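Running this now, will post back.
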Amino acid sequence: MLGRMKKHVDLIRAGESLKAKVFRGGVWLGGGSFAEQVTRFGRNIVLTRLLAPEAFGVMAVVLSASSVIHTVMDIGVREALIQNPKGSEDDYVDAAWWMAFGRAVTFWAILSAIAPLIAGFYGNAELGPLFRVSAIGVLFEGAISSRAYLAIREMKFRKWAIINHGGAILGVVVAVVLSYFIRDVWALVLGYGAESVGRFSLSYLVCPYLPPRKLPVGAIRDLLTFSRRAFGLSLLNLVFARADVFVLAKMFSPADLGLYTMAIYLVQTPTSFIMNLLGQTMLPTFSQVQDDPARTSRILVQVTSALVLVGIPVLFFLFFCGRSLLGILYGGRYSAAAGPLIVASLVALLNLLNGQITSIFFAKGRPQLHRRCVVIMAIIMIALIYPFVAWFGLVGGQLVALLAIIVGFAFQIVRVRDFIELDSAQYGKLLLVSGGVSLGVAAICFAARRLNFGAAPIPNVLIGIVGCMIAYGISGGVFLRNGLKWRNQD
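Update: finished.
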């Protein structure tokens, strides 16, 4: 038994199979992303005690408005290079650098020019210089080594983990240090820029590259073919992800917006960890098996199973313990945003599940299929964000996002069945099984409240954690049993 286990571990550690590469890549990306998200989480705990909620509200506007221009100009350079069969050739690597840097320069010029207009719209003159400084970081992002993207294509995830997460951690540290000296939003903006500078520097240290002097026109034209198919995706995704911030910033005070954004960041921080890990491993994975519908389907079901078994107990935990958790981590005034936190957790889980189907579309070179899903979600957000916020207050921003992702997710499930051998009954069963397992979390939390064991915040959170551990113990058995069946199929 031990001999077989050792042989299996050695094959994963040194093998060249797709499973071995994905596993090793997952370890590097998971470790790097975990370190980054833990650092961000620690930063938020520190900064909520050093800065007023207004600072986070203003920063949310800066990031959201910057994202509008950023995504309008997104041409999918990294995804185009990864997906293209010729992506490893020098001309294509050079083409990716020119495309990314040209886009960054244009972005910086446009955002700098319209900064006063945005500041005037929100009635905050400080927003103008904040936008201009934050835009400088985009220049560094656009100029990073294109061989860093090539490392992802070749599944050398160790290099990308060092670049991406190392730069992010540097920016987090800078923001925390500056917050002791600059007790306002400037500490956040300068820290945000430091992340870009960190990635730029690390990219050339880890993936040495000399920026090209000439334009490889043919390669640029080829990469833009993919970009045209994905045109508008980033902007539409932005509408889904940021429409709530734009509307809330106009209807509520910066302090209220700060409470809202920090609450949803609490769930978006670990979600970003998982989303980045899966996004950077599953796209090349599905690309490798894009001509095998049955295997693609099995991989999708395996990943989905793991996500729902981990995610649904967390939903129950936040429903019963979200208010207490916010009070413990950020302070009592942030407990008022428990409603948005709970709804945001369900939005995040569905977004993760939806993202795996999106990776299949991208791996097949058909990003336009995902665009239709995002169009539907964007229309729902635009049409309903204002009335939902007017009717339900802060939580309305997440309620309309929940409605949008439910409709978009259902649409993608129907579309992906045209390309893979997806068993819809088995896919739906995953949600039912995990929901049943997670009822244990609800039962424990409810019983504790009835017996007055969880009235105080800390005992309430501890009881919720115990419930999650029990649910995960049962879920682990379910996943291992399914894993044996999937392994026999492969």
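The mean pLDDT is 76. More later if anyone needs it.
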